Amino acid sequence: MDAFDSEVRNFLQKWPEIEFVDLVFTDINACPRGKRIPIKALAKVKKGVPLPVSTISLNMAGSVVEEAGLGEELGEPDHLCFPIPNTLTRTVNPNVAQLLLTMMDASGEKPTSLFIRNVLEDLQKQLHSKGQYPVVALELEFYLVDKSRMDNGLVKPAFNPKKRMQEKDTAVYDIENLDDYAEFLSDLNTAAAEQELNTSGALSESAPGQFEINFNHQKDVLNACDQVLLAKRLIRQVAHQHNFDVTFMAKPFAHEAGNGQHIHLSVVDEAGNNLFSDQNGAASPFFYQTLAAMIHAVPSSIALLCPNVNSYRRFSAGSYTPTKADWGHNHRGVALRIPMSDSNNRRIEHRIAGADVNPYILASVVLANVLAAEKFTPEQCPDPLSETAPSMPTRMSDALAELERGEFGDYLPKEFLHIYHACKQSELAEFESAVTPLEVEWMLHTA
């Protein structure tokens, strides 16, 4: 019996009531796509599930972006998708399980470099071959919101189930706010435990109805990203059970804090020694080389970390979001924060991405920076909180231009970058062609 057969058998012994399985495949935006099959058909999945390769290049609305070149031009060919080990879990529906898939080429023998999870796996292998083992922990922010919308179509704050009123007051780390949503959080934590998600609890964040879920650090970067995908799906499902909607938009409210997806990074050797610290416990040369590589890469990586027009609305001074390519110790306003820690736990918190980022792309950018560290000297790392730190691109068009002429082609497959750029350029063009209520209000009688 192979590993997948064993995983299925053990799962069904534990959850015999399961009748269906959602086969979940993610597009370039990490939106879950797929199909639901009877549990009796699950054993056949190990032979490969044919799915159009064009499903990688879906836009946020779920339509194929023909400019990416994977659709009609090729005749919508299928590639084979296979189960990701140890991702067969329950959902909140007691009769339905879920399983993540990864895409290979048409023969089913070679991972396609068009699928970002495969790219991340290759980056991790490259670092392991150098004796460097990334350790990551992710933080994911989200808003519970009302299922109805404002008259103008914008998002309405959540209706507080205990106070019986619409949320409106900001209270950072508000324990009472957690009590107000105790039933939702309890069901979320229970379901997360049943799915064996590597989470360490939720806390109230910087705005009404906003929460953050933290993941424990781990050396398996691929699994860490898988966990984020499963957690986002779980949060949505539990929220709907409690008559909430939920959003991971980077900036759902104009005058409230945005949603971030931060990633903490350290790098250890095979024995588990932190390579960001030297033998005396001080920051190592490799630590400063990695910081230098990350800062150098900020302009060309912003488009990958901020995939939507809304992503850029999150950046503003005074809101604990970065506006410059800088770093600092124990400072939440920088792009790269060095949290308080001892020498064994020295790490870098990458704070640029919003909650709308594809976690595999976020991790790929970070690991590519670690690979690039050897090209930099410690002396090339700027001073913390440098006054001369360059400003980050804060418009999607500028970020895409930086990506097109940037250096990530040295570490990420050029064919993947081409597809990503084509998809995002298409979305930007569609957004910019839309007439908004604000411009009508401003110009209807004054232009």
UniProtKB/TrEMBL annotation:
<dbReference type="InterPro" id="IPR036651">
    <property type="entry name" value="Gln_synt_N_sf"/>
</dbReference>
<dbReference type="Pfam" id="PF00120">
    <property type="entry name" value="Gln-synt_C"/>
</dbReference>
<dbReference type="GO" id="GO:0016874">
    <property type="term" value="F:ligase activity"/>
</dbReference>
<dbReference type="InterPro" id="IPR027303">
    <property type="entry name" value="Gln_synth_gly_rich_site"/>
</dbReference>
<dbReference type="InterPro" id="IPR008146">
    <property type="entry name" value="Gln_synth_cat_dom"/>
</dbReference>
<dbReference type="InterPro" id="IPR014746">
    <property type="entry name" value="Gln_synth/guanido_kin_cat_dom"/>
</dbReference>
<keyword id="KW-0460">Magnesium</keyword>
<keyword id="KW-0436">Ligase</keyword>
<feature type="domain" description="GS catalytic">
    <location>
        <begin position="116"/>
        <end position="447"/>
    </location>
</feature>
<protein>
    <submittedName>
        <fullName>Glutamine synthetase family protein</fullName>
        <ecNumber>6.3.1.-</ecNumber>
    </submittedName>
</protein>
<comment type="similarity">
    <text>Belongs to the glutamine synthetase family.</text>
</comment>
